[in-house]
């Protein structure tokens, strides 16, 4: 079975706190706003190279929070 992403794929911006940690509540609110505004798919950590500003463990933890928030939805 092959699934293809279709529709609007929105890169998520990653907001940061003053200490440069990810601003979790803003991130999750932004994801929800994008989906409520018509995005079909989300591309976490944007498209501007900001993912390299975070460690792998930080990115994995934020992705787990995004999925747990039920903001993310399949297909």
Brief overview, please?
Keywords: Lyase. The chain has 75 residues and is mainly alpha-helical. It contains two helices and two strands, in the order E-H-E-H.
The count of β-strands is 2
Q: How many domains would you count in the coordinates?
A: 1
Number of helices, where a helix is a run of at least 4 consecutive DSSP H or I residues:
2
Radius of gyration: 13 Å
Q: How far apart are the termini?
A: 13 Å
Structural class: mainly alpha
Q: Can you summarize the main beta sheet?
A: 2 strands, parallel
Chain oligomer state: single chain
Helix share bin: 25-40%
Show unreliable segments.
Answer: none
Mean pLDDT: 86
Major sheet strand order: 1-2
**What fraction of the residues are assigned to beta strands by DSSP?**
5-15%
Overall shape: it is: globular
Which sequence of SSEs, written as H and E, runs from N to C? EHEH
GO molecular function, one term: lyase activity
Protein name: 4-hydroxy-tetrahydrodipicolinate synthase
Pfam family, one: DHDPS
Organism: Ruegeria halocynthiae
């Amino acid at each position: 079975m092959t699934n293809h992403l279709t529709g609007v794929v929105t890169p998520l911006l990653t907001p940061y706190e003053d200490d440069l940690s990810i601003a979790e509540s803003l991130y999750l609110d932004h994801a929800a706003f994008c989906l409520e505004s018509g995005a079909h798919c989300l591309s976490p950590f944007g498209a501007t190279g900001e993912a390299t500003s975070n460690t792998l463990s930080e990115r994995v933890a934020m992705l787990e929070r995004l999925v747990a928030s039920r903001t993310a939805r399949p297909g």
